[in-house]
Amino acid sequence: MIPVAFEYTRPSTVEDAVAVLAADPDAKVLAGGQSLLPVLRLRLAAPSTLVDLRDVESLHGVRVADGELVIGAMTTHAEILHDRRVAEHAPLIAAATATVGDRQVRHLGTFGGSLSHADPAGDLPAVALALSATMVAVGPGGRREIPAADFFVDYLTTALAPDEILAEVRVPDTAGWGYRYEKFSRMAQAWAVVAVAALVRRADGGVADTRVALTSMASRPVRATAVEQALTGTDGDSGAITAAAGHADEGTEPPDDVNGAADYRAHLARVLTRRALTAAAGA
Amino acid sequence: MTRISVSVDGTEAVDEIEPRTLLVQYLREQRGRTGTPVGCDTSNCGACTVLVDGRAVKSCALLAVQADGAEVTTIQGLANGELHPMQKAFHEHHALQCGYCTPGMIMAAVDLVGEVADPSEQQVREGLEGNLCRCTGYQNIVAAVRDAAAEMRGAS
Ligand code: FES
Ligand code: FES
């Protein structure tokens, strides 16, 4: 099906893009379009104007600044997969990105687009949450920083105002941490029924720090804090991991839909958390 | 209407289009590239896969205006006097039945082999994850891609 007609504009600065959004509440941002185009084709949305960010140079690319990885919102999944700095400073991002969509989708889809779309079954929101990333947004009033924990508000809803654009994402260095993105989906291209992003930092033989975030276990990505507390401070052997993973579904509100019943998702969360932690802790 | 200039299978074109025109529609209806089919409404099947600046994309999941300034290659631009090794291998391995998925399969496979010169069976299966075939069971497609990859390595 063909989308409803809209105007199209391709500004070359963030300020110009923001100005279009500020002037027209029905205007929408077009990044890689890999979530938006299917939505437009099914006529589930009918924006007045699409603001294509392709030509905004400052939104593209990856750099390292002040010991943090900075990923431009328009950086594609394929670019992230081939980026040496991502592999070195935040390999969890690369691991999860490899499971996004399919090859064609990864060529066009962007890091910032996936985060702003905020699908609770999307892979990158949980990863950003596990990494305690900081979202840098630009609006008519200038730039502001939003911690990942505050960014994902609800199903397809972020803390971005309608006239704000996600410009870049700052990711603390996790070089040397064990990591794993453990995803369960039923077939090729399918969304995660449940997935687990895990990071473990070992020191002196024990677990010094644990981060676990869950995909598709609520209307937004959620941290499994009970798991983190249970594992940190232990020696990280398989007994400690199994015990910690048993808390994975605590405080979650998993969706109950055609892809999985809520109790099945709760079970998956525990099993996948155990697997993810086993890999991340090197147990 | 928005003006775009694109190179399609080596031919430069400048056209006025509605911004909502999908790339696949533009290719089929304005550039006569009916070798690129539409197989679904949900951007899942991959039948519409073409190369934009050398990278495989689903041309139903991209607006034609997004391809402004780009070089687009469809299945009709692949042969160069004789069949491309990937086309030849699909033919020889009987890697198609109805043929509907074939243009997209071949374009995605060309893109994959461009990145992974000697893909394992697993890499081919994962690399073609975005392309669905209702007929063949994939077995012969995988064989064709690996065979074409070997020929393309030899040829370069
Ligand atoms: S027509 Fe099915 S993915 Fe494009
Ligand atoms: S040959 Fe019929 S869909 Fe693949």
Question: How would you describe this protein?
Answer:
- The complex is a heterodimer of chains A (283) and B (156).
- Chain A folds into three domains: 7-52, 2-Layer Sandwich (Uridine Diphospho-n-acetylenolpyruvylglucosamine Reductase, domain 2); 61-172, 2-Layer Sandwich (Uridine Diphospho-n-acetylenolpyruvylglucosamine Reductase, domain 3); 178-280, 2-Layer Sandwich (Enolase-like, domain 1).
- Helices cover 33% and strands 26% of the residues of chain A.
- Chain A is built from twelve helices and 14 strands.
- In chain A, helix 10 (225-231) packs antiparallel against helix 11 (238-245) and helix 11 packs antiparallel against helix 12.
- Chain A is globular, with a radius of gyration of 19 Å.
- By secondary structure, chain B is of the alpha+beta class.
- Chain B folds into two domains: 2-76, Beta-grasp domain (Ubiquitin-like (UB roll)), CATH 3.10.20.30; 85-155, DNA polymerase, domain 1, CATH 1.10.150.
- Chain B has helices spanning 23-30, 85-92, 102-115, 121-127, 139-155; strands at residues 2-8, 11-17, 49-52, 55-58, 71-73.
- In chain B, strand 1 (2-8) and strand 2 form a beta hairpin.
- In chain B, helix 2 (85-92) packs antiparallel against helix 5 and helix 3 (102-115) crosses helix 5.
- The mean pLDDT of chain B is 97.
- Chain A binds chain B through residues 1-8, 10, 30, 33-34, 37-38, 40-42, 50, 52, 54, 78, 101-105, 107-108, 188-189, and chain B through 2, 18-22, 25, 41-44, 46, 49, 55-58, 60-63, 65-66, 108, 111-112, 127-130.
- Helices and strands of chain B: which structural class? alpha+beta
CATH fold type of the largest domain in chain A: Uridine Diphospho-n-acetylenolpyruvylglucosamine Reductase, domain 3
Radius of gyration of chain B: 15 Å
List ligands, each type once: FE2/S2 (inorganic) cluster
Helix percent band of chain A: 25-40%
**Overall form of chain B:** globular
Q: Can you tell me the number of structural domains of chain A?
A: 3
- Structural domains of chain B: how many: 2
Shape field of chain A: globular
Give the oligomer, counting copies of the same chain as homo and different chains as hetero.
Answer: heterodimer
CATH domain class name of the largest domain in chain B: Alpha Beta
Residue fraction in strands of chain A = 25-35%
Largest sheet of chain B: 5 strands, mixed
